[in-house]
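note to self — DONT lose this again. spent like an hour looking for the file last time. sequence + predicted structure for the chain T wanted, 190 res
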Amino acid sequence: METFDPVGGGFVVERIRDLFYGSGGGGGSSGEVLAIVDALLGFFRGMFIFFLLLFIFGIIFVIYQLIKIRPGYEIVYDPNKIQQKKIAKSRWEEILERFNVGTESDMRLAVIEADSLVDDVFKKLGYPGETLGERIASVSPEELRSINDLREAHGIRNRLVHTPGYKINKDDAERSIRRYQQVLSELEVI
């Protein structure tokens, strides 16, 4: 073995030739075997390059498809702005104070104000819709884990506002307030 070329494949070809003919080199047909082995290695190299390019194209295609189906929401509201966080937090503290009074009218008002606060936050985040119900419908559980809790709390708020004589008990009001708080915490507003 006079030449050693581990990168170009010559080393492998020499080893295969040695396997067939021993280290002495073989007879007059060793050139033919060497040509066949070279052709096979060239074929496999070509197949490798083909599948590598196919794999790279596949990755690019998948990334393109993921970008295409991604929701096109543009965040208008920057939750890191301290002024907006302070306003939301002070409004939330007022809502909790009103709820802690304990009368039915204060609990009703606390639930309605909490719903209004969440609606304002959703508007600032740029969710589409005229009402909070429409905005909630445009949000998926992947975007907001507590969206189903918000739907239930908003349903209680709707019954308070639209059903004459609807009385809310302390447990329902407390559950609604906790759900609104969970949503606002997840959105990092309070």
